[in-house]
């Protein structure tokens, strides 16, 4: 399948490409598209190895980071293979609202979100409607509030 999936929208300070650091793969598996001019910092493998050798806490934090990425990717895969648009949308919203967040603002269009969730636009609109009617979310334009996180997580 040659389609590209938007896995995550990065914010300033976030990491990417962790899978490539200690991998001997000829291709880089992450593709980034910047929405605006930005700076990125690359840490070569040798630097990371030195930091980890000098400070074991760096190695532990890297392992925690990779573990979180594995969990994120497992959730994302589940969202891609979800049997319903409602489940895919619920999984996306729960993923966006971590750390106590109860609202998100959609970064792109409804069409781009539908593509990201691998569902049709009309199915996405129906899913939004279902979740709103059940009192799980409230939509105000691109702003979505999670009204019942526990109820929403049961839809995944």
Strand order of the largest sheet: 1-3-2
Classify the fold: give the CATH topology of the largest domain. Arc Repressor Mutant, subunit A
The proportion of strand residues reads 5-15%
The CATH architecture term of the largest domain is Orthogonal Bundle
The computed structural class is mainly alpha
Name the helix and strand elements from N-terminus to C-terminus, one letter apiece.
Answer: HHHHEHHEEH
Any chance you could write out the topology, listing elements then pairs?
Blueprint (H helix, E strand, L loop, with lengths): L17 H4 L23 H10 L1 H25 L4 H12 L6 E3 L4 H8 L3 H13 L3 E4 L2 E4 L2 H5 L3
Antiparallel strand pairs: 1-3, 2-3
Helix pairs in contact: 2-3, 3-4, 4-6, 5-6
What does this structure look like?
With 156 residues, the protein is mainly alpha-helical. The protein folds into two domains: 18-80, no CATH class; 85-153, Winged helix-like DNA-binding domain superfamily/Winged helix DNA-binding domain (Arc Repressor Mutant, subunit A). The protein is built from seven helices and three strands. The protein has a three-stranded antiparallel beta sheet with strand order 1-3-2. A hairpin with a 2-residue loop joins strand 2 (137-140) and strand 3. It starts with 17 loop residues before the first helix and ends with a helix.
